[in-house]
Amino acid sequence: GQQVMQIPQYQHVQEGEDFTTYCNSSTTLSNIQWYKQRPGGHPVFLIQLVKSGEVKKQKRLTFQFGEAKKNSSLHITATQTTDVGTYFCAAWGTYKYIFGTGTRLKVLA
Amino acid sequence: DGGITQSPKYLFRKEGQNVTLSCEQNLNHDAMYWYRQDPGQGLRLIYYSQIVNDFQKGDIAEGYSVSREKKESFPLTVTSAQKNPTAFYLCASSGGETGHFGDGTRLSIL
């Protein structure tokens, strides 16, 4: 079945450094969503990308959808301790969302 | 405010017992989902429902059952056939543009 791979699995950064997580699919995606899950919490919707090559920004977060609609990235500029958590991408499969394995981000002060 | 309510927050199951996790949404979403999350792991789809009175198995449906008698409700039953039920269970709904999650239920074995 359809799979969504996410890399890296873990990332430790110093506060102020940048961070990027990548989401890759073997098939063309109709859209992709990004979620953030704080430790002990539930996933919270961040954004949805639909168009080929689409780039969206939310303050320090930049989301990109690949031209072939098979990959996506989330980039955080100048990380802060509040960015700690696990970031998931979710691809729309046949009537269901398929989640990537997530990237756990730790920010060292 | 609209949202998804999961209950209970914590649940303990005895050997051989079936337990039911509640999920209610007032977002008027057609689609609802149940995911299981193990410590440090991603989300795995248990069951999903696109419309009332219809649901489909996800990737790890064995040992679980669901019903969708009302649009607002999508309860999940963890049966005694599920030999490793200890996990964090998340219910979600979708209206197409966004996904919304409940706060989750942590299930443990006594």
What does this protein look like?
The complex is a heterodimer of chains A (109) and B (110). Chain A contains no helices and eleven strands. Chain A has 109 residues and is mainly β. In chain A, the strands form two sheets. In chain A, strands 2, 4, 5, 9, 10 and 11 form a six-stranded mixed beta sheet that branches. Chain A has a five-stranded antiparallel beta sheet with strand order 1-3-8-7-6, with no helix packed on it. In chain A, strand 6 and strand 7 form a beta hairpin. Chain A starts with a strand and ends with a strand. Helices cover 0% and strands 52% of the residues of chain B. In chain B, the strands form two sheets. In chain B, strands 2, 4, 5, 6, 9, 10 and 11 form a seven-stranded mixed beta sheet that branches. Chain B has a four-stranded antiparallel beta sheet with strand order 1-3-8-7, with no helix packed on it. Chain B is an all-beta fold and 110 residues long. The radius of gyration of chain B is 13 Å and the shape is globular. The interface between A and B is medium-sized, with 21 and 25 residues.
Percent of residues in β-strands of chain A: over 45%
Q: Note the beta-strand portion of chain B.
A: over 45%
Distance between the termini of chain A: 41 Å
The profile of the biggest β sheet of chain A is:
6 strands, mixed
Series of secondary-structure elements of chain B, N-terminal to C-terminal: EEEEEEEEEEE
Oligomer: heterodimer
Radius of gyration of chain B: 13 Å
What's the gist of this structure?
The complex is a heterodimer of chains A (109) and B (110). Chain A is an all-beta fold and 109 residues long.
List keywords for this structure.
heterodimer; A: 109 residues; six-stranded mixed sheet; B: mainly beta; four-stranded antiparallel sheet; globular
Topology:
The complex is a heterodimer of chains A (109) and B (110).
Chain A: E1 4-7, E2 10-14, E3 19-25, E4 32-37, E5 44-49, E6 55-58, E7 61-65, E8 71-76, E9 85-92, E10 97-99, E11 103-108
Parallel strand pairs in A: 2-11
Antiparallel strand pairs in A: 1-3, 3-8, 4-5, 4-9, 6-7, 7-8, 9-10, 9-11
Chain B: E1 4-7, E2 10-13, E3 19-25, E4 31-37, E5 43-51, E6 54-57, E7 64-66, E8 76-78, E9 87-94, E10 99-101, E11 105-109
Parallel strand pairs in B: 2-11
Antiparallel strand pairs in B: 1-3, 3-8, 4-5, 4-9, 5-6, 7-8, 9-10, 9-11
